[in-house]
Amino acid sequence: YRRIDMKHYTYKTQGTCSQLIDFDVEQETLHNVQFTNGCDGNLKAIASLVEGQSLTKVKELLSGISCGSKSTSCGDQLSKACDVALSDLA
Q1: Averaged pLDDT score across all residues of the chain
Q2: Is residue 36 a contact partner of residue 19, using CB atoms and an 8 Å limit?
Q3: How many CB atoms are closer than 10 A to CB 81?
Q4: Band (5; pLDDT cuts 50, 70, 90)
Q5: Span 48-58, pLDDT tens digits
């Protein structure tokens, strides 16, 4: 049995109500996503839906989503955070 270590990330969002996204990555898989501030119920739903998904899949699904008149959203910011983690793991 080999234990794979998780790596923790904190991403500072830009242009959204949420200010930070904390998450863990294990073998390019997303875990324990938590948003600081923002729309509590919606962000808990996003975190639940992306749990255990690959960084690449989450990035593809959420990239480019806007929120109201804003050019970004909390989901889009999570896609950017996934991109940072993917670059770090490369």
Answers
A1: 95
A2: yes
A3: 26
A4: confident
A5: 999 999 999 99
Task: Kindly list the distances between the CA atom of residue 17 and the CA atoms of 42, 53, 60, in Å, as whole numbers in the listed order.
Answer: 12, 24, 22
Neighbour count for residue 60 (Cβ, 10 Å): 12
Nearest to 56 by CA among 10, 25, 19: 25
Order the strands of the 29-36 sheet from edge to edge. 7-12, 20-26, 29-36
Across the chain, the runs of DSSP E, i.e. the strands, are 7-12, 20-26, 29-36
Q: Is the pTM of this model over 0.70?
A: yes
Given a contact cutoff of 8 angstroms between Cβ atoms, the answer to whether 36 and 30 are in contact is no
